[in-house]
Design goal:
Length: 572
């Protein structure tokens, strides 16, 4: 068993996030309301120059379709740049280690992964990426993908307060997100990580001389700056293949807690940004309540089951029994609650960073992580996670209104068939993006079990399910065991199928969010009446929480039964 006293670290950190989130959410709201802010003297002229280069103006506002086209143009350019760079990286700057250019299928998967804020990799960072890829190409996507998600959230929220059919200007939202939020905050966080001992250098490698003799090549680079925007932007792709389990990227228990705080900051603050923009601060609390209820239950289940030994792993080569309260696959520099908090926050915030071997976790713990990716909204990824939660709310209010015989409306805007259709499509597209390629992979014989891993049982079934779920949710975490993937996913099929899943799972829900916001923005505000649903209430919080859980379970129950549930009941 673990030391219960280490739970205090978890409790204090969650309390710190809860106390900072209202203030930080207000700051996010001011960014997207274009309010005067500290730094305007320096940043406003820079932003104006960028707008002139882009041929746009803060006074130009876009409808949903225009906003989405602008978004696709920017993200398409990022995708194209990444693809070309990865294919030709061996001929481009900073390839001192001689990393070869990627095959076209691997480059396609990687470009799709980083453009969509997923950062799911089918390669080994240290040997298959040049320093130029890690310093120039990938970081571009780290900023652009995070800014895209937050801009979509801002546009959708504006739909509840505007009446002219417009949602704002994508170029302006993206520029302000980078200049007012991501770039300054990532710089500050990188400095703090350096103080914790995370490397920040342009030196590619150094030779170490271990006590056991011989030499060891240690890969270095701007790890601190890469890690800061990776975690802050809910990207999660690690500078090292071991990700946050590497002592170079995450040296101590204190740095582990700090990185957990960084991952929680923006997603947990987003509901307060919503309340700030619509000028009804109390409307944020039902979403905060839903997020914390689901997250707290998930974390409690994760810790409880990880505190018990997993007998199914005792005989697997390279994995022994649980010792000293540490589950197999956990980095022993962190206590169980500290490691569990990082992992649950990472997956539930769609960051995808790992400090554990997820394939070595208890089946219940794996199911807990899968559920977070199924919902995509508790709190979900940067911007789009809260957008998904709003879509759940739109459907929930519509269903609730029908049950009590009232015209469904929210924040003075009627919920019509258009909003319901697009909300339902966004929610249904998630299981569609997972299950179609999943069935093709299983029935088509594309799954090859890695040698020395678990046999082709329910665990392998769960591994393939986890991969496509992670890609569809734009999460990026991977289910591994014993230091390697439980099946071979570095194949043309998984490269192309995974890329398609990530692109579909990213841009179709984004379009649905913009369409829903655009439909609301075309309506006048209605005054509240006797039949108006009171959404800023405990009752509404409980209702939305239960609605989200029930809908998610119904959408994914069949695959849960064949994968994680089968493992839990002894199916292997």
């Amino acid at each position: 068993m673990f030391d219960p006293s280490s739970l205090w670290d978890v409790i204090v950190l969650i309390a710190l996030v809860a106390s900072v989130a209202p203030w930080f959410g207000g700051y996010l709201g001011r960014i997207y309301m274009n309010r005067p802010m500290i730094g305007d003297v320096v940043l406003a002229p820079i932003e104006s120059a960028v707008y002139r280069i882009l041929g746009t103006s803060p006074r130009k506002t876009m409808r949903a379709g225009e906003y989405f086209v602008a978004l696709l143009i920017v993200n398409g350019m990022v995708f194209g740049f990444l693809y070309v760079w990865f294919v030709f990286q061996s001929a481009l700057p900073w390839d001192a280690t001689g990393a070869p250019g990627m095959s076209w299928t691997l480059a396609f998967h990687s470009a799709a992964s980083f453009t969509t804020n997923t950062d799911f990799t089918h390669f080994t960072n240290e040997s298959q990426l040049s320093l130029g890829s890690l310093v120039i190409a990938w970081p571009l996507a780290l900023f652009a993908s995070a800014a895209t998600g937050l801009s979509v959230m801002a546009a959708m929220i504006r739909g509840f307060v505007r009446r002219d059919g417009t949602l704002g200007n994508f170029y302006v939202d993206m520029v302000r997100t980078i200049t007012r939020l991501l770039l300054p905050l990532a710089t500050l966080l990188a400095i703090i990580l350096v103080l914790f001992g995370v490397p920040e250098t342009f030196t590619n490698t150094v030779l170490a001389h271990p006590l056991t003799g011989g030499t060891q090549t240690i890969y270095l680079g701007p790890v601190a700056s890469f890690t800061s925007i990776s975690l802050l932007g809910t990207n999660g792709g690690g500078f090292y293949s071991a990700n946050a389990a590497s002592p170079l990227a995450n040296p101590t228990a204190v740095s582990n807690l700090f990185q957990t705080f960084v991952m929680m900051l923006i997603p947990f603050s987003s509901p307060f940004a919503f309340g700030h923009v619509i000028r009804r601060r109390s409307e944020a609390w039902p979403y905060v309540g839903t997020i914390f209820i689901v997250f707290a239950v998930a974390l409690g289940l994760f810790i409880a089951y990880q505190a018990v030994s997993n007998p199914a792993l005792a005989g697997l080569p390279g994995l022994g029994p649980q010792i000293g309260g540490y589950p197999v696959g956990q980095e022993t520099r962190f206590s169980l609650p500290e490691g569990a908090l990082f992992q649950v926050v990472s997956v539930y915030s769609n960051v995808g960073a790992n400090n554990m071997q997820i394939g070595a976790l208890q089946p219940v713990s794996q199911l807990v992580l899968l559920f977070g990716m199924f919902t995509q909204s508790t709190p979900g990824g940067e911007g789009t996670g809260f957008g998904m939660l709003l879509l759940f709310a739109v459907l929930g209010i519509f269903v609730g209104g029908l049950m009590v015989g009232r015209t469904p409306e929210y924040l003075g805007k009627k919920i019509g068939t258009g909003q319901v259709r697009w909300s339902a499509l966004a929610l249904l597209s998630h299981p569609l993006a997972i299950l179609v390629p999943f069935v093709v992979a299983i029935l088509g014989g594309f799954v090859t079990v890695a040698s020395g891993s678990l046999p082709a049982t329910a665990h392998t079934f769960t591994s393939v399910l986890y991969e496509f779920t992670s890609e569809a949710a734009n999460n990026g975490s991977a289910l591994t065991a014993g230091g390697s993937s439980t099946f071979n996913d570095a194949t043309p099929f998984f490269n192309l199928a995974g890329a398609a899943v990530m692109l579909f799972g990213r841009f179709l829900p984004i379009y649905a969010m913009l369409k829903v916001g655009g439909m609301f923005s075309e309506q006048p505000l209605l005054p509240p009446g006797h039949g108006t649903l009171k959404t800023a209430s405990v009752t509404f919080t409980i209702y939305i929480t239960l609605f989200l859980i029930i809908v998610t379970v119904l959408l994914f129950l069949p695959v849960i039964a064949m994968g994680p549930l089968s493992q839990i009941l002894g199916g292997g």
